[in-house]
Design goal:
- The chain has 376 residues and is an alpha+beta fold.
- The protein is built from eight helices and 24 strands.
- The strands form four sheets. It has a ten-stranded mixed β-sheet. Strands 2-1-6-9-10-12-13-16-17 form a nine-stranded mixed β-sheet, with no helix packed on it. It has a three-stranded mixed β-sheet with strand order 21-24-23, with helices on one face.
- Strand 18 and strand 19 form a beta hairpin.
- Helix 1 crosses helix 2.
Length: 376
């Protein structure tokens, strides 16, 4: 983003409809804030808010855009925009905010149920509702609001003990972290499930994954760690890597260490910085030309897309924020974007980024469905 100081007077001047000056002399940040200010002004002048504009999301968006500015500058900018938009914004907050909150509450009720731990004994434990520790097979299960830890005193149980499998399911719009009983840490992205032993009692440490996860595997030279994903097996001793099983392709992005991929009598070794790919349609296993970062950035709450088409971007955004995208104009699927930002809390912010960077696409939100429109 342009680091030049923001000229707020220039932005406020542009809000005058009679001013038709060219905006080429404005910085990217000034243009971005102008679009937001004009949107607020336009909506407040209407009879009521429509489904495409949420005041609460808009206010969060304003805070997010300015969060990297010094506090005094942010206060002065906020005061300036309120002066131009008018006292109507305060009236809107007093009289419209409860109605908007109601809309947001109804949207929340439409979301899938949250993260659930399915235990081997048939018990279902929703995350966030169970904070008492559970003891089983010499292992203790500890719960927090957003993570689970399986703690084993000996890390690896005695060979021959019964293998008890638990399953953790993370729906769209959610993410979590789990520490397995051997000390391996797994970050699970939205739309993902993992099945794993309460304690690793076999000669190998094996888990089963559907979706997307980042593994930081605890080293144990005597027990290979194996991730099963469909026909693909990922074998490691101790390393860090990301796995993505969406879209009919299984991608393994290796951050450090080394892994061996096996599928249908094929073998592919990966070194740090390499990405392996298995096609479920052709059943071919090969070394991809992809870089590692696009497949692991999510773990650090980064939205990263490098020259990616809009269809693929919306597939990830849909899982991340629990929305369904509908392309009313199919040609917009092929629009390409490069994005590298901290993941916003709400989807409205990223949609505004997309509209700002390419003025040929628009979005309309209807419940948990987002319509992608062409402005051409």
């Amino acid at each position: 983003m342009n680091k030049d100081p923001m000229d707020w007077d220039k932005i406020l001047a542009r809000l005058d409809p009679s001013d038709k000056k060219n905006i080429e002399d404005m910085s990217e940040e000034e243009i971005d804030m102008l679009l937001f200010a004009e949107q607020v002004q336009g909506k407040l002048h209407g009879a009521k808010f429509d489904a495409q504009f949420s005041l609460s999301e808009g206010m969060r968006e304003f805070a997010y855009r300015k969060k990297k500015l010094r506090l005094k500058r942010m206060i002065s900018y906020a005061a300036a925009i309120l002066a131009v938009v008018g006292i109507g914004i305060w009236i809107a907050i007093l009289y419209q905010y409860p109605e908007v909150d109601g809309k947001l509450a109804s949207l929340e009720s439409e979301k899938q149920k949250g993260i659930v731990l399915y235990r081997g004994n048939g018990e279902e434990i929703p995350m966030g509702t169970h904070h008492e520790n559970i003891s089983e097979q010499g292992s203790e299960i500890q719960f927090t609001d957003n993570s689970i830890r399986y703690i084993s005193k000996d890390k690896i149980a005695i060979k021959g003990d019964e293998l008890v499998m638990d399953k953790l399911v993370v729906p769209s719009g959610e993410r979590t972290k789990i520490e397995l009983s051997d000390g391996t840490q797994v970050w699970l992205n939205a739309g993902t499930s993992i099945k794993f032993p309460v304690v690793f009692t076999a000669d190998t440490r094996e888990v089963y994954l559907e979706g997307e996860a980042y593994f930081d595997v605890a080293h144990n030279a005597n027990k290979t760690f194996i991730v099963h994903s469909g026909d693909l097996q990922i074998k490691v001793l101790g390393t860090a890597f990301g796995v993505n099983t969406f879209s009919g392709e299984i991608k393994t992005a290796l951050v450090r260490g080394s892994v061996e991929l096996q599928a249908n009598k094929q073998t592919q070794r990966l070194a740090a910085g390499e990405v392996g790919q298995y096609s479920t349609s052709s059943t071919k296993l090969f070394l991809s030309n992809d870089e590692v970062r696009p497949w692991v950035a999510w773990k650090d709450h980064i939205l990263y897309f490098d020259d990616v088409n809009l269809f693929e971007i919306t597939e990830r955004l849909g899982r991340t924020y629990d929305y369904q995208f509908v392309f009313d104009h199919p040609s917009t699927k092929n629009l390409r974007f490069t994005i590298d930002i901290d993941q916003p809390d709400d989807i409205q912010t990223i949609l505004t980024y997309l509209k700002t960077s390419l003025d040929t696409v628009d979005f309309k939100i209807n419940g948990r469905t987002i319509h992608v429109l062409s402005k051409q």
